Amino acid sequence: MAGLATTFGSGAMTNSINEVNDAACILSIGSNTCTSHPVIGMYVKQANRKGAKLIVINPREIDLVRYADLWLQQRPGTDVALLMGMMKIIVDEGLADSSFIEQRCENFAALKESLNNFPLDLAEHVSGVPGKKIVEVIGLVKGNTIRARHLGRDILAMIRALIGGEVSEYTKMIAESREQALDRMVAEAQKLGANAIVTLRFTTSSMMQGAAELLAYGTAVRVENDN
């Protein structure tokens, strides 16, 4: 609200909540929407289920990340540098909605001029978001592995519990499981023609007594250098 009041003179919303449900693309930055505004968060999820693209820019893995087509993790406090970089690309590549700007914006010429001397590599360096351009979002890819408990490792783990220290046998098993799940996810992405995976996450679940699944999943995309 403070940002809106400073920029527009009022802390009121610039759009109605109902409009969120009909949006084609939603960008969430600097907001833990589902916690701070649960009703709006619900509308965002509904719009996403209806086909709206959801882009989340947040260093934290907030709830909306689970639904995001793209999740950018900038360094805390670097929102302005990242947004400046995004605006420069929009202006330089002719992606701006000129009719909207003419009808609803003020001082756009001054903003455009301020972007002339803003180097894109500065946005990358400050925010930590790689200077790659996503040219195609392919879809969700995943890889998994299911591992069972091992009697020998269990015995060693019980000994570790008595004497203390790292349970290295299980550390090694978990590391191997992650690598296998990642390899399978990457293979699936490559089959679909992707050359990168964003919003990578891991999750685990119990399959049966003594066995668990480790799942790696993310969004397969095609990227190119943003020169």
- Specify Rg, calculated over alpha carbons: 22 Å
Question: Structural class of the secondary elements?
Answer: alpha/beta
CATH topology-level fold name of the largest domain = Dimethylsulfoxide Reductase, domain 2
Q: H/E order of the elements?
A: HHEHHEEHHHHEHHEE
CATH C-level class of the largest domain: Alpha Beta
- Per DSSP E runs of 2 or more residues, the count of β-strands stands at 6
Q: Which regions have little confidence, pLDDT < 50, spanning 5+ residues?
A: none
CATH architecture of the largest domain: 3-Layer(aba) Sandwich
Q: What is the count of distinct domains? A: 2
What is the average of the pLDDT values?
A: 83
Walk me through this protein's architecture.
This protein is of the alpha/beta class and 227 residues long. The protein folds into two domains: 2-130, Dimethylsulfoxide Reductase, domain 2 (3-Layer(aba) Sandwich), CATH 3.40.228.10; 134-225, Hypothetical protein apc22750. Chain B (Translation Initiation Factor IF3, 2-Layer Sandwich), CATH 3.30.110.70. It is 45% helix and 26% strand. Strands 1-2-3 form a three-stranded parallel β-sheet. Strands 4-6-5 form a three-stranded antiparallel β-sheet. A hairpin with a 2-residue loop joins β5 and β6. The chain is elongated. The chain starts with a helix and ends with a strand. The model has no long low-confidence stretch (mean pLDDT 83).
